[in-house]
Amino acid sequence: MPLRPARIGRVGVVGAPVAKAAVVSAAVRPGPAPVAKAAVVGAAITPGRRRRI
Amino acid sequence: MAEVEIAEHALDDLGPVDYLVIEFPAGHQTFTGEIAEELVRLVDAGTIRLIDAIVLTKDENGDIDAVELSDAGDLGPLVQLEADLAELLAADDVINLANAMDPGSVAGVIVYENVWAGPFAAAARRAGGQLIANGRIPIQAIIASIEADDALDENGA
C-alpha cells in the first residue's frame, strides 16, 4: 500500500469499518418499468407535493 | 492570539465535510475522464473543496491496494486539484473504507468540504443552532414511500 508517509500512524477520521451501502442505481435500472420508476422518484421530490398525515 | 482568532473564524465558516466511496465493479469500469471533469467543475464553481482523494483496489482475495492520486497515472484535469489535497485520510481510514468494496473492484475515494453549505451552517451556529442529525435518504426508500402512497390511493384510503 504505497501511501504517503504522512498517512501512516496517524489517527483516522472514519472511525470504523464502512458497510456497503445499497446501490442507488439498482433502484432505477432493473425491473419491468425503469422509466416509470425514475418518474416516481422525480414526482416524490417535486415542489408542492404534500405529506399525508 | 490573532492566529487563534483567524483559525476559529475559518473553522466557523467551514462547511460540512463528507466522503464518498465510488465503486467500479469488475467488468464495469469505463473511465472516459467524465468523472474528473465533473469533479473539477464542482470545485471551480465553489460548490465543494476537494480535501483528499485516493484510488483503492481490492483483489479477489480481499487484499487492498491504495494509490495516491498523484501516482494514479494520467490525471487529466485532476492535476489542478491534486496539488491542493490535504491528505486527511490515515492508513487506518483506507482499511475502513475499503471494507465496503467487493473483491475485484476499484474504488475512488474523495473527501470534500461542502463549501455551498458553509455560510448556512455558520449562520445556524451563530443563531445558537447545533447539528444533531444528518443523513442521506436512499432512492429505494423514496420509491417505497411513493408506491405505498399510490397503493393507499388505489384502495381508497
TrEMBL record, chain B:
It holds the Pfam family DUF6325. It comes from the Bacteria. This is DUF1269 domain-containing protein. It comes from Agromyces allii.
